[in-house]
TrEMBL record, chain A:
Pfam families: SUFBD_core. PANTHER family: FES CLUSTER ASSEMBLY PROTEIN SUF, UPF0051 PROTEIN ABCI8, CHLOROPLASTIC-RELATED. Belongs to the iron-sulfur cluster assembly SufBD family. This is Iron-sulfur cluster assembly protein SufB. It comes from Methanosuratincola subterraneus. It comes from the Archaea. One of its GO terms (biological process) is iron-sulfur cluster assembly. Residues 148-377 form the SUF system FeS cluster assembly SufBD core domain. InterPro entries: Fe-S_cluster_assembly_SufBD, SUF_FeS_clus_asmbl_SufBD_core, SUF_FeS_clus_asmbl_SufBD_sf. SUPFAM superfamilies: Stabilizer of iron transporter SufD.
From TrEMBL, chain B:
SMART domains: AAA (SM00382). Residues 3-244 form the ABC transporter domain. CDD domains: ABC_FeS_Assembly. This is Iron-sulfur cluster assembly ATPase protein SufC.
Amino acid sequence: MSDEWRKKYRLEALQAVTKRATFGNDIDLSDFVTIPKGERGIDEDVKKKGLEVGVDVEGKKGGTYFQVDHSVLLSQIASRIKGVEMMTTDEALNKYDWLKGYYWKALSVSQDKYTAIAELRQTKGYFIRSAPNEKVEQPIQACLYIGTEGVLQAPHNIIIAEEGSELNVITGCTADSRVKTVAHVGVSEFYVKKNATLVFTMIHSWSDEAYVRPRTGVIVEEGGTFISNYVMIKPVRDIQSYPTAHLVGKDAKAKFNSIIYASKDSIIDLGNRIYLMAEGTSGESIFKVVSTGTSKVYNRGQIIGQNRNTKGHLECRGMILCPTSSITAIPELVAEHSDTELSHEAAIGRLQEEQLHYLMARGIQPEQAIGVLVKGFLDPGLPGLPERLQEEIRAKLALLERKSSPQEPC
Amino acid sequence: MLLSVQDLHVTVEGKELLKGIDLEMEYGEIVAIMGHNASGKTTLALTLAGFPQYQVSKGKILFEGEDITSKSIDERARMGMALAFQSPPAIRGIKLGHMISLSAGMNPWQPKPGDDPDLPKKILRKVNLEPEKYLDREVNVGFSGGERKRSELAQIFAMKPKLMILDEPDSGVDIDSLKVLGNSLQEYFRTEKCSMMIITHHRHILQYLKPSRMHILSGGKIALTGSYEELMPKIEELGYERLIKEASNT
Ligand SMILES: Nc1ncnc2c1ncn2[C@@H]1O[C@H](COP(=O)(O)OP(=O)(O)O)[C@@H](O)[C@H]1O
Ligand SMILES: [Mg+2]
């Protein structure tokens, strides 16, 4: 886009291209390309991988946005589902002048080199908006797929749940089974207006060599609710993300649920930050992780209580299956007001032998028993998650159960 | 002979808990094990089931003639030995219905042709747990004493074992639940003819399941063996300690 108005963001971004992120390893993105050689259509692998992250390309029902590398193959829908519109962010910016007022407002373009690169090398992204007071029952699905070796995918997504509306978005991020080294630095800005509810479910299923740096900012207005469900079961090279929610309106709520199965030599650094800015706001983050292989997991959580009658809770539950893996919980509670109530709870341990033996006493082989326990430990029971997706996540976990000694264990 | 325990010695962390147990069970036989608290009843049950922390330092266990002393818990279970735990653990995230399917050797997430999807329901009804309420409950999470015992029975019924080891299936259970448990066990015994080793403190459950023999454990040994008719009234009259003392005097 050549738009004048974006110039200031580009200039700001240019200042930040070498700025290291607060957390995680520093990734050199200069070798990744934004212009892949050939264009790719929706083939069998795309369909299969889409399904794996809960997005049914051929589904007749749901609204679907499908981006392969940098091309949007499918963004049908707006017309088909009442009360929602969906298009690429570029289209939306052309269509709605007011949208410029949302661009880079939930997070800063100069936050770190990844936000900067996302601006400078942006590759599409989706815009989803529910109309005021529309209760959109059908989940809207979006899939970001990387199909080419060495690609950097940098979409800029914006979701707006207008006043009084309810919106349920499922995003899957995945890569071709054949590609190895890829990078993703998606930017997401979520706006939950007065009394609106946004349930955002993200399923990550990357390749072993994927470098992933999503950057997410959320603004929740009075009486609004934001629920984030995050699921990652496949290995990844290195992911770091720290979505931040700003509860700016009275009684706004945010809840983050994460389910992680860390395998191989994945480096996983995930967490959330919630600012309880207005009176009566509340936030919660629940992180469940099982670690195997030589994976390293960090769970950061921060809740900042800044107003009266605010409440926040952080929870990390970890199971270490392999002694060669590690889980680090780093909870932070910051009280900046005397009438805020903040708590955290972290419990990390190994698989409970008593439970394993109990299952074995029923004739279940130890490998399968471990799988059953891992699945049970991670089982979502996620609030606000449609039953269909709940079942899909369960099925994915069941895969661990079936594979028994969950993938190559230690 | 279904089970033959020969001079079984068991140690845990260097401490000898069982000091030479000899015990035999025939197919279709019911045997009761009684004895004061800490006499080694649960130790015996868990050792038979193959729990690795209970190390057999001497002696052996034969099941259907095969030496199973070094077999793992799950191998023994698949050979036909099922244990109803005295205090089973709670397991979050696993539904009782699934647990019953797994116990029956099925995979609830990947059914095979011929699997009966209604099996968990049918079994729950047998132990008087309404399927509507209990199929989706997490195993033992928030279960009352009676519910726990019934959930244990449901799981081991699903295993169709040759030998059931019931570790205090009746303790901490109210009179109504006791009836349910007694009736389900009686019915199961009548139809399946499986052998049962019942560890208990009370005669009530034994009225449903007439044992052919009773053993009284004391200090990790069988102190006394006799028939139900002979021993039960004496236990109630004298208590374990005096009974054992008097028996050893005569
Ligand atoms: N895992 C163990 N570690 C140490 N001591 C144990 C263990 N299990 C049982 N014991 C001890 O062995 C004795 C017998 O226990 P148990 O077999 O549970 O008795 P009962 O079932 O007859 O009440 C008790 O003194 C108990 O404390
Ligand atoms: Mg006991």
